Fold these 2 entries.
Entry 1:
Amino acid sequence: MAKFLENIKKNAMLIVLVLVYVFFVVMTEGKMFSPLNFNALITQNAYVFILATGMLMCMLTGGNIDLSCGSFVCFIGAIGGILMVVKELPAGVSIFVMLLVGVVYGCILGFLVAYVDIPPWIATLAGYLAFRGWGTALLSENSSTGSIAPFPQTFLSIFSGKIFETPINELNIVCVAVGVIASVIVVAVNFLTRANRLKKGYEADSLVSVIVKSTLSVAVIMLFAYKLALAGGIPTVLIWVVAIVLIYSFITSKTTLGRYFYTIGGNKEATRLSGVDTKKIMFFAYLNMAVLTVITSYIVIARFQAANSTAGTNYEMDAIAACVVGGVSAYGGSGSVFGMVVGATLIGVINLGMQLLNVDADKQKIVKGIVLLGAVVFDILAARKNANK
Amino acid sequence: MSLNIRDILKKYTMVFALIAVIIFFWVSTDGKILFPQNINNLISQNAYVFVLAAGMLLCILTGGNIDLAVGSVVCFVGGIGAVVMDKHINVWVAVAIMLIGGALVGVWQGFWISYVKVPPFIATLSGMYAFRGMANVVMQGMTIGISDETFLNVFGGGADCYVPDFFHGEGLNITCMTTGIMVVLIYAVLVIKNRMDAQEKGFEMAPFYSDVAKIAAVGASVLWIFYKLAKYKGIPAGLIWIAVVLIAYGYITTKTTIGRYLYAVGGNEKATRLSGIDSRKVYFFAYINMGLMAGLGGILTIARASGAQPTFGQGYEMDAIAACFIGGASASGGEGGIFGVIIGAVLMGVINQGMSIMGISPNYQKVVKGIVVLVAIIFDVLSNKKKK
């Protein structure tokens, strides 16, 4: 029983996610559960997952955030629009140039934060203001409507649309097959991890809990696969999201570099004294954030098929909220990619649910503000309780 | 002597930067920026910067903590006020509601920040969204006009928001000019009195000529500003509010215990706490005060525009933060003062005004402001590093 309670506590956010989801399903009279909205949940919120991944890396280093990412999405979109639509350059070249701009910004920001010791929120607050202005200015100079379109098909098909698309309500075999393969891999990994730990004499989860975990994972994956199969197939952005999540999950949990992010957040001075170049890690965190922001920008302009001056508004909020809701500490040093994914999904569910319920944008802002604050307060109180133990 | 000049240059870097910026805009706007009407607008349109920056200064003093929500709170409080006045409720009741509303927002944010230890940038980021949303809800997404003459006149909006000229001067507002002369005299007396006090107590004093130079420089600029204002319509109501707020905060930060606590907490929180000061209360005070100033900022903003709009206040947090950092407040807390805030706010005002006169689009204005903030903070961080 004690173990059961502990499990519930450990997965509190997962349970909250399920409850919130069920709440919206009931409120929308099942609309939320339809294949099209499964698809929408992923395509509309892909940006949350990708930005939150970058934000996670920043926050791990000590609760540092990037307020400029939303505006930078807009700015990069404007550059993409000018390159691909106005100058009619090939998609490949444009993608490369946009990435290059992101790398330059990331280096400048990283340099300021890591080597000049500018507090990140001020450095990125400047970017928040400047890039929104610059992006909007570029768009309005190059188009009378303040929005640039249409983007070339090559670009759109890399970052939006579906793979092996089939008509709606016809079961997409590829999608189901991928779901089955993913399920098999997840189950195999779960059991292999356990076997490995037992072999090395580490503490491992009980067989029952591994079986329960595997069953639940398979159920969720297959549900998604089935619903997406009915909605026309695997959305291209899902591939991007999964790839990024897997890569960062690997980096944070299995590599030395990943460990450094945690130790810096835990105790920067101690990490530095033990010979780690903490500045380099901070630099990397912000460079990485800028690169992921560029990828987000690709996805956002591909989804809207246009570069808009309002693109990316409040994205920084969603990304920070996803991390904090997912248990990433606002003071750094703790948090995981899995938690972040749960947090991002929760934010996504709230976004989509409120949209389906026709809650207007203003009230959505209020709800989001409260969710962010609530999550941080929860995190802090929980940490305090742990410290008291 | 050469060392001395370098010290002066260092101490008043931002004053010289301000002069340079004014000269730049003077040249690039063909002198328009120094027209009496533009000097008047500079003060009236940027009154909110002074007020918000004074509030922000207290937060920053406690350890580089900021309030990202002020812009939204200005809009929210202004929206409430406009709605209340639209229902023909007494103006002063409306003003009280706005100030109390601002203070309550401060209590809300201050509670989370000081007692629950939510990092200020997250607590106020949450407020930035939530209060913007609430402002929209309050105004139902619409513009609400304000027609009450008393309100507009007192808080610096409309055509008659000037102190009337009791002497009816021709082409020159005599009340305004007299006030200017009195301000300079009071300032001179204060400086001399401080000097005599210090002498009596045997404190170290700046050389006599430096005090004279200070009085001459401040006196000349004050007289010049009042002369320009007198040639326009006289003292704008906004200036009175700026003066009240700045004098009050100048007093609080330099002469009161709570003011000292703000610096102490920002300098070394732990040491302050261990010496028996409840640092939580200090944070709480700083944020309630910020809320109150945001309330006043809201009042000034809707009066100036003769109405409230859901988009008001965007980027105001930036202006306030920038004014503080330009004015030498330290991003790590414990350093900064009202004099610096004045210089910083004037600089932001000149940049705002200059860019508007030059016809630079609001989009590029954002870019310039972002860069200005960044440069100011880099300068602050680097000069602190050098000191160490």
Entry 2:
Amino acid sequence: MIPDRNSLYGPLDPAPEAGWAEAPPRMGFFTDTSICIGCKACEVACKEWNDVPTSGLDLLGMSYDNTGALTANSWRHVAFIEQPRPADHRTPPFGGNPTGGSVSADSAAIASGTGNPTGTDPGVPPGSPEPAARMAAGPEFLGMPGAEPPGRATGAETRTDFRWLMMSDVCKHCTHAACLDVCPTGSLFRTEFGTVVVQEDICNGCGYCISACPYGVIDQRKGDGRAWKCTLCYDRIGADKTPACAQACPTESIQYGPLDELRERAAARVATLHERGVPEARLYGHDPTDGVGGDGAFFLLLDEPEVYGLPPDPVVTTRDLPKMWKRAGLAALAMAAAAVVAFVGGGSS
Amino acid sequence: MAEAHPVGFQWVMEAKQRGARVFHVDPRFTRTSALADTYVPIRAGTDIALLGAVVRYILENELDFREYILAYTNAATIVSDQFVDTEDGDGIFSGFDPETGGYDQKTWQYAGQEGNSGVRDTGEERETAAGLRHESHGMPISGHTQRDETLQHPRCVYQILKRHYSRYTPEMVERVCGIPQEKFFELARAWTENSGRERTGVLIYSVGWTQHTVGAQYIRTGAIIQTLLGNIGRPGGGVLALRGHASIQGSTDIPTLFNLLPGYLPMPHHANHATFDDWTRAIRHPGQKGFWGNARAYCASLLKAYWGDAATPENDFCYGYLPRMTGDHGTYQQVLNMIDGKVKGYFLLGQNPAVGSAHGRAQRLGMANLDWLVVRDLFMIESATFWKNGPEVATGEIVPEECRTEVFFLPAASHVEKEGTFTQTQRLLQWREKAVEPPGDARSELWFFYHLGRKLREKLAGSDKPRDRALLDLNWNYPTHGPHAEPSGEAVLYEINGYDVATGRPLGGFTEARDDGSTAMGCWIYSGVYADGVNQAARRKSRHEQNWVAGEWGWAWPANRRTLYNRASADPQGRPWSERKKYVWWDEEKREWTGYDVPDFEKTKPPSYRPEPGTSGPDGIAGDDAFVMQGDGKAWLYAPAGTVDGPLPTHYEPVESPVRNALYRQQSNPTRKTYAHPVNSVNPSPPEEHSSVFPYVFTVSRLTEHHTAGGMSRTVPPLAELQPEMFVEVSPELATEVGLTHLGWAHLVSGRAVIEARVLVTDRLTPLRLDGRVIHQLWLPYHFGFEGLVTGDSANDLFGITLDPNVLIQESKVGTCDVRPGRRPTGPALRELVDDYRRRAGITPGRLSPVVTSDGGETRNDS
């Protein structure tokens, strides 16, 4: 049994800790973005299986991403990042063509303001142009976006490199899930597979989970009021079936299985990519000692997490609750003591 | 491929993980480019210049697989001394007739065969898209040829090829395609280094490659490279066509085309095929060698399947009942005929020409001028509602109250709501079961046609008119089941497979077909799919329980062969070229061909077999003639017949191009099929004047999120929301030049139409530098129309109608246009804008570009 002091933070196996006797191995997703082809089959399969409503018919201008974010009505979200940065192992796509300056950063900045109502809250939050541009340009980007209109630099062969990143994002099914910790009704619960699921018939729509999620995943459906997110297809995996998104993925970019196995496979994949001259390959959310105790759904990325719109160092928002309660308790004790002192003092005067 | 065929692309990704190198050539950087090792941007419509340069690279550096090409190709064959190449004809081969725009192919023949009886004027072949019938076999040609095994003879194919492509240099690739030389060399090196005895390379194209006025020759060029490198008939090689829909392969095998009957038998022509004997003789060419020699049995068995007991040897198996072609009955000719009031009725099944075909306005105007139109589809598509919601209603060209066409919309069952087969690009037939009942009145195609035929026959019963005999004598008895009397798909498959007429025994394969009326066979190349009374297409044996070729999964035509011409995977003596690429070989002990696949060769014919001179039919094929369907048993680097626009692929500019052909004075394909009709037009290209009115090149293709004309995706919420609006992709450089802003509006104008779209400014498009000039290309998805959950203007409206001469496929992957910021005008002002452009470009009704431009015409333009 893991000691109490760790139960809101640090490594642990969540299902037994949640009280499941004889829990099966923890199941999860490993999403390898290096082989994602951006087909969005995961988004469609998820909506079909889980009967998730449409999230609006809006052209967002964020490359081929017209979903925008994970919301109550989009439980898988494929991000597309057009990036004017080199991928060293590949031939520069536009080397030798008469290209001017890159426009990726500018168009990302313009697109960042196009979030439209998705019928959910907070839905696709409007982005800020500046960070959006910074992310599209990759970590090396230093200048201000839009300083020079694109293509002005005629003849200068400046756009010699380009890459297009694609990544299918999903609920992380954290080891320490703040959404679950703060849920007052017990609607959010930890399954025997170690995943985190909302029971829609119990959710009262309080929305505490939304502000608690360090990734901005969980979201509320307007009119319905309840919180919705990926269930890791609880109904399918209970019947020994693969979740819909992983089943539909044509390139096995989304892999489903026992988390321990996936972590081993992921480490081997990173090593292979490093051997093949892709030093930028890295894992995200795989580490049990990170701020959320490791994710049940983790990723292989080809750039910094911020580029994909992921927080670089997520921390479970309830980590400090014991300390806060302890402090609050101390404060209350101190106040009580002071009051007592005051009374006692008052009485003695 | 990732963009339009994501499920198939998984195998490319798997190959890549095992170390394969992936090159992607495309005008726009797509999802495929994102995953490829090398992306090569190209100017749309210049692929022969690129591939021709690869041919030159191979020949100049002697990188061909010499033993392979000597044994299995016509590289050593001597060509007639009357043949004149485009190098000497300034872009035109010998035999051209400017009057007809066609070639007399006599001079293209092998030496000594100039009088070959199979050769006709290409003018007529073009009218009937005759090239299509070569999908299953080569053009008949005599196998008795003169050869020079040293490849030194100046008129041997090898030397002709070398001369033909001598000016297709890397510099020329840069000038014509806009591909930097460094990239060209990277591609050429990788391709040649990964071919040969130990390695093979594959060429994959999607059907956009066919949608050019030189489309068939694009594929020929690819085939020449693959043949030179020994990548045909061997594992990991080939030229793979990714088809545009499920079972497009099936719909040419058992065709929905005007000029073909099942199994690539030509539809009879009224003048050339008066009798059954004329018809079959034209197919099998008596005295020629190869497997086409049995054609008479295939023809007789087909007619026997159609007309059953009524078909007898005495009445030529009811050959008289078959419709005859009188000329071009292709889809574009039909549409123009509709506009001219020559067509009364039209069936549309699973097709949406109002959005999906070139020149959408012509399509809609044509369909608005019929007596009746039957549309069978899953959803209410644009081709069913054009008369009330189409763009021509807004411009006043179609008035709903006055439109004379009566439209019948019939709901169709989808692929999961009916049983049947899909034939995919590997020629693999896969049976699928019905998963759910179709909703409401939706019915399968099989149901529709069976019951339509049944009712027509009932109505005509008792008729004594000769014209009704063809219908009344039909063998139209299929068992039905269920409350809606659904015909049995398996019964149809059984008929396609063929059976012994006397006993009903299913035939084992096409070799059992007879020309005496004792066999019936619906499609000879599919024979064997129901062998032993078993639905072979329904086989589902796991790949883990059989060898890697997985011959027991589904069934492939012909005779369940997975790789055609696989005799070429062994050397002339019948030994595998290498252990690594072992596939099919001669077992000397057992005296038979064996291997992982079904050998594409007579099982017991030894490699050492040599026919007696003058032997015809299959016996004329030698033990080392790997290409058994060809009249000379050889793969054709040079095609002495069969292609109407030349024996060797030649770079011609697209019919609409902003630049002059850098290789020849002949600007575009002189044999292209054109239609001089008031509704049709071609934007001027050099050497004509005013080409600068339409300065930009545009190309269209697909997005992963949508399917073709959008009928199955813009109507489905989870798909529609993923690409919710029509857009145009432009490079930042073009956006600056024209003043377009990201997510703003733009409209594009051609001589046919103006359409509007939202703008995506993206680094994924690049300008190209040609001859010191910068060319901008735009890209549009062609999925959008005015019906469905998400709508937008149709990109195909921009195209005119000009076709490839071999197969009558339209050039709808490249055109010229102008682009302007902001939205397009609406109402009558829309046509005024187009008319203004036409005026400026000198486009008068029915005007065509000059066919031949070798006459120094360009001087007029350079001023």
